[in-house]
Amino acid sequence: MSPAEELYEVTLVVNGVPRSATVPARRLLSDFLRHDLELTGTHVGCEHGVCGACTVLVDGRPIRSCLQFAVTVDGAEVTTVEGCTRPDGELGPVQQAFRDCHGLQCGFCTPGFVTTVTAYLEENPAPTTEQAREAIAGNLCRCTGYQNIVASVLRAAELRQTPAEEASR
Amino acid sequence: MKPAGFTYHRPATVDDAVAVLAEVGPAGKVLAGGQSLVPLLNMRLAAPEHLVDVNRLSDLAYVRADGDGVTVGALARHADVERDEAAYAVLPLLRDTLRHVAHPTIRNRGTTVGSIAHADPAGELTAVLALLAGTVTLRSAAGERTVTAADFFTGPMSTCAGAAELVTSVTFPVPEGRTGTVWTEVARRHGDYAVCGTGVVVTLDDDLRVAGARAAYVSVGPEPVVLDLTEAVAGEMHDAADWPAAGRLAAGRLDPDDDIHATAAYRTRLAEVLTTRALREAAGRAAGATTAARREASGGDQ
């Protein structure tokens, strides 16, 4: 590679806020979020698309941010785990459900689960246990054994249907 | 684990894309969804000098379905094809198969054309394209050509596409006659690569007797394997045919390898069972004339 790597200005709307940085083309979206925008909620596990920890929403759809160059998605709307809160900044329904159901232990994989489940419940607001299990099949967790994560998905579905006062009980 | 540096190109039109490909030649690689390529780059198993990002070619982000088949442009994501109702109406096999391709998160970004151009012998869509005797359209600065799936796949991860060519679309034809289709596979976890998978097409005549039975397989050979199993069940009634005989015929013709996931003997046995099961189910669907009815319904809309 030539010593002077060409740089690109990349602008994304991250959690509703326009953010830009100037980066080489090989900057992965995961590193763009963490290093350039200092949004370290998105975690980087395997860096080859297997673990799901780096999952973010791009234009509403969950994708692996470690398998995407930031420059490719220039101009897109991105939602990270930091954006999965309620408008008042309190825990969003999926985050609250993971807390209620003890759906995390070390928490490393959790950002990927929260974003994946947030998008999934938009598509299927009332999943069965079996569907909940399938919805998280692309995310790895080494702590919980998944039982409490499945329970969290079902709880999140309930919380989304109930008004905010119960969610913050 | 970061990709090596590369010169980045993001053409805005197909003409620009093929011009860049012609210029950079074998030093270039096309980037679409990146779900197979970027892992290779991250692990530095591949380090192309030039990356030609086709994600701006929104003209290629289409799924077109009519009574003859489904044509998928190079920028249609797996999820777009999976969710396309018109495509499902004429060719339910596409959605049925796509549900087994990796995880939804991967399907949101990965492209159907990209996975065919990647030609992974474990890729479900490569097998479906071969099963249906589909076609692949390639563009270069010199013009356009369309080749059959049989000519396109030349080996594991290799195709007849030249360095200066961009695969712009693939066409999955609707099988002729009264047909039923099924995809089934066994994987260690949902969404993982299959240990063995098969897609089948069963064709019935007007008396609901078996006129054709074909199957394609993933993970049992270096490239998509397509078998014609008609001889085992020809002329038999759809609900009384000796499907296990067709399964045995398939098992006898496949020659899978051992690997870390399964022995060759286990894979062969899986192929036999899955073939039997899939053919029986497909015959039931053909007898229900679901596909024919859907095709008529869709034809009426055209």
UniProtKB/TrEMBL annotation, chain A:
**A Pfam family matched in the record:** Fer2
Parts of the chain that traverse the membrane: none
Annotated metabolic or biological route of this protein:
Alkaloid degradation; nicotine degradation
Q: Which InterPro entries match?
A: 2Fe-2S-bd, 2Fe-2S-bd_dom_sf, 2Fe-2S_ferredoxin-like_sf, 2Fe-2S_ferredoxin-type, 2Fe2S_fd_BS, Beta-grasp_dom_sf, Diverse_Oxidoreductases
Q: Which residues form the 2Fe-2S ferredoxin-type domain?
A: 8-84
Q: Which UniProt keywords apply?
A: 2Fe-2S, Iron, Iron-sulfur, Metal-binding, Oxidoreductase
For this UniProt entry, the molecular function terms from Gene Ontology, in alphabetical order, are:
2 iron, 2 sulfur cluster binding; metal ion binding; oxidoreductase activity
Q: State the protein's name.
A: (2Fe-2S)-binding protein
**Taxonomic source organism:** Jiangella aurantiaca
TrEMBL record, chain B:
The UniProt GO MF terms for this protein read: FAD binding; oxidoreductase activity
The record's keywords, sorted A to Z, are:
FAD, Flavoprotein, Oxidoreductase
Q: Enumerate the spans annotated as FAD-binding PCMH-type domain.
A: 1-177
Q: State the SUPFAM superfamilies in the record.
A: CO dehydrogenase flavoprotein C-terminal domain-like, FAD-binding/transporter-associated domain-like
| Keyword Flavoprotein in annotation | yes
Q: Does the keyword Cytoplasm apply?
A: no
A Pfam family (short name) is FAD_binding_5
User: What protein is this chain from?
Assistant: Xanthine dehydrogenase family protein subunit M
Q: From what organism does this protein derive?
A: Jiangella aurantiaca
